[in-house]
Amino acid sequence: MQQNTANTSTALPTGESVLQGLPWRWNTQGRIFLIGGLGFMFDAWDVSLNGILIPLLSEEWDLTPSDAAWIGTANLIGMAVGAVMWGTIADRIGRKKAFAWTLLIFSLFTVAGALTGSLEWFVLFRFLAGVGLGGCIPVDYALVGEFTPAKQRGRVLTAMDGWWPIGAALAGFVSAWLIGTWGDWRLPLLAMILPALLVFAVRLFVPESPMYLMRQGQMEEARKVIDSMVTRTGAPVQAYTLETTQAPAKLSFRAVGEQLRLVWAHGWRVTTVSWVLFLAIMTVYYIAIQWMPTLLIEAGYEQDQAFIRTAGMAAVGLVGVVISTVLVEITGRRVLLAVSAPAATAMLVVLGLTMHLPVAVLILLLGFGLVIQIAIPVLYTYVSELYPTELRGSGFGWASTISRIGAGLGPLLFIAWMEPTFGLAGAFGICLIGVVLAVLLMLRLAPDTTAKQLD
């Protein structure tokens, strides 16, 4: 396999096509999927802690609703900063290094929050944890997606989101157990030292993306990774070419602005659709996951029941991810997203009308948790596929940033104005209008990416 010059016959396959044509093996691509998925699981766990901490710290520190809202808002604004920052960094220093750093940062600053006794310091630590959290998702998807064979990519990237409901559910169930047993709000935060241990697994078992290495001009390193993948999967050995491309500029403070310019230059239609979809759908999800415990407690439910019901809403999402994984290649990305996202939001509208009916609340919470996790994996897969390799991390990261800004400021608007003015059902109705407009824009402006080979 020593064909690495640009003058090699064009009949030879490229390194990218060899990599994306390999058979799926659990000891090869599956190992990267598992390690990346565990990082994603702890990401969900940490985000979902905001919903647990808001009612607990409101009581502990006698917070007003507007003050308590900053617990989640600071975390999500930090995620907005982290999403674009780490997406850009990953396109410069590599997926592997960026992924390890995001894990370490969100783990350490989450634990640091347990050591403070004031809202101001706690909000600062939640912001800094969010900076790490915000990078985990785009970097994770770029890393896993670039190792996954083209035939399985849609299902694998969709299945990645299965780790999210697992993490979100564990946050609720484990927190309910820790607080119910020992009564200390700090214990759920201290449990987040565990993601830091994943850094060692990343360093030992996850190679750097060959597609990234080729963009950096590191052809020998890229060849070593591809050859190793061919050997481990048992694929036939064949000659291939590695095309030299211009390496991106060195990382600098100007890189963020330059990457934003390149993202828009790639296509205003694609970027507009990506941003609007993320903003509409993820704002709805984060309002639900972070404020549902508080909304249930205000409606008269016991604290532990509010935590467990919200955890159940997250847990059933695993079934939604399985359904999404099955349907994503059958229906196509756009159709599945256009049906599932509005349907999930409509359930929250009905929930707002039936908060006094425990059975209806349980059914609607489980229904929302199921259907929203059909939509979100498709959203992540679809947007990551709309961009080429050199922009995949930053393109996804910028879309994720917009969603974090909306999800950070949205709850302040939702709790302070929308819900008091229009009622819970009316506030969720406004969210539904936003989601419907977003999917209509997608159907109008953006192409389908089903079964297309990544650039």
Description:
By secondary structure, the protein is mainly alpha-helical. It has one domain: Growth Hormone, Chain: A. 79% of the residues lie in helices and 0% in strands. The chain has 18 helices and no strands. α2 runs parallel beside α4 and α2 crosses α13. The protein starts with 14 loop residues before the first helix and ends in a 10-residue tail after the last helix.
Per-chain topology:
Layout: H1 15-20, H2 29-60, H3 65-93, H4 95-113, H5 119-147, H6 150-160, H7 163-182, H8 187-190, H9 194-205, H10 210-215, H11 219-233, H12 255-266, H13 268-298, H14 303-315, H15 317-331, H16 333-353, H17 358-385, H18 389-445
Class by SSE composition: mainly alpha
Distance between the termini: 22 Å
Work out the count of structural domains: 1
- What's the average pLDDT? 88
CATH homologous superfamily caption: MFS general substrate transporter like domains
